């Protein structure tokens, strides 16, 4: 299955008083990375940070190996941690 997972926790101070503004900033940064080729490899993942530098989530490629046409033998970044 081709799938990209994005998880963002919005409970810290960077999201107050305007949660939408900080969420937009994080997603725009992710968009810039995607436009330069990030998430084009089977195992790409990244940590997402708020304006204060705090880890607030991740974005990762969840491709199944069987669905991938070609996999990079040397992933560009480690797998994202599992979040509950």
Notes on the protein architecture:
- By secondary structure, this protein is an alpha+beta fold.
- It has one domain (4-67).
- The protein contains one helix and three strands, in the order βαββ.
- The chain has one helix at 19-35, and strands spanning 4-8, 45-49, 55-61.
- The two termini are 22 Å apart.
- 14% of the residues are buried.
- The model is unreliable at 68-84 (pLDDT under 50).
Task: Give a brief rundown of this model.
This protein is α+β, with helices and mostly antiparallel strands. It has one domain.
Throw out a few tags for this protein.
single chain, 84 residues, alpha+beta, three-stranded antiparallel β-sheet, 3 strands, disordered C terminus
Summarize the helices and strands and which ones pair or pack:
Blueprint: E1 4-8, H1 19-35, E2 45-49, E3 55-61
Antiparallel strand pairs: 1-3, 2-3
């Amino acid at each position: 299955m081709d799938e990209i997972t994005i998880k963002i926790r919005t409970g810290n101070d960077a999201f107050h008083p305007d949660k939408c503004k900080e969420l937009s900033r994080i997603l725009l940064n992710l968009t810039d990375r995607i436009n330069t080729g990030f998430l084009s490899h089977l195992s790409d993942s990244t940590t997402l940070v708020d304006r204060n530098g705090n880890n607030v989530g991740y974005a990762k490629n969840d491709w199944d190996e069987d669905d991938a046409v070609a996999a990079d033998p040397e992933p560009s970044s480690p797998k994202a941690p599992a979040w509950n």
